């Protein structure tokens, strides 16, 4: 959770507006955090979930049409809203 929080946090160790160094902390710390998090997961749990994922993929890619439709609806509403904002002014 800490790695995800750091990745999405607007607060950085080195601000992004500093050339090269601003993005370097993200490029180094996020993969390092993911590696450490993966090493903390027990091997048996990883094997179990890899097997479950392979079994799911054999039966076809999982599809969730409801969520896909919901995401599409959100994009359509956002585009219509932005068009209305542009033409209102």
From TrEMBL:
Main location, first listed in the record: membrane
Protein localization: Endomembrane system
Organism, as annotated: Paenibacillus rhizolycopersici
Source species, domain of life: Bacteria
Alphabetical list of InterPro entries matching this protein: DUF1232 (IPR010652)
TM segment ranges: 65-88
Ranges for domain DUF1232: 3-32
Membrane association type: Multi-pass membrane protein
Record keywords: Membrane, Transmembrane, Transmembrane helix
Protein name: DUF1232 domain-containing protein
One Pfam short name: DUF1232
